[in-house]
Amino acid sequence: MSNESHPGAIDGIVVRKRRKGIYILPNLFTLAALFGGFYAVVMAMNGRFDMAAVGVFAAMVLDSLDGRVARMTNTQSAFGEQMDSLSDMVSFGAAPALIAYEWALKGLGRWGWFAAFVYCACAALRLARFNVNTGVVDKRYFQGLPSPAAAALVAGFISLMTELGVKGYDAAWVMFAFALYAGLTMVTNVPFYSFKDVQMKKSVPFAVIVLIALGIAVINIHPPTVLFGLFVVYGLSGYIVYGWRRFKGQQTSVISTSTDEPEERGLHK
How far apart are alpha carbons 11 and 167 in whole angstroms? Predict the structure, then answer.
């Protein structure tokens, strides 16, 4: 039989096209993060708001690992990127909004679901913008508060109040403010440090290891309080960087030009 009858034949050998598959390892982490968000919603529906917050925090850790695992094993894929975005929408968009609503916001009536929806919608907008602007954003900074950090603000506040014995209806308006702040900050152009330029493989001075040990010890004093304090500091850090850059007359946007949207340069001053 001649080679002409087999388009994939080379020197009489038929070469079969390799089927495209899905990388298992990074997507396992993504699915585990998705489960964390789902678990958080189920726990909130059952009134276990402490465990709901744990579900969100677990999703944060797993979400930070899937991309690193994909890069380390050279298993990046377009499927994985889309899966990661959908998982983030559940774990850091819908889940925190529903937990906040069940814990405190539903007692505010329409104002409650207004705040929950604004948070959820802003998370979706932030993730969509992140996907579109990936190629034009300075990798050292996020454009707006990243959705895991926004979820940490909401879940961290609920976790701390639950630990202190504060009921949701006693902190409803504070929760309202946190939900709106976290949601709207996600869709601003304020720069938040991404820590992506931190090289784990580089050697560091001995003092850095000592500081890390001290940090772990401080967190163990009272984890809900310390962690929530760290989330608040990070949630404010972008505005501090933005104000400092404005004061120094430097560019405040993390986008120089956009290759997708014409006339976008003027939107990021």
Answer: 76
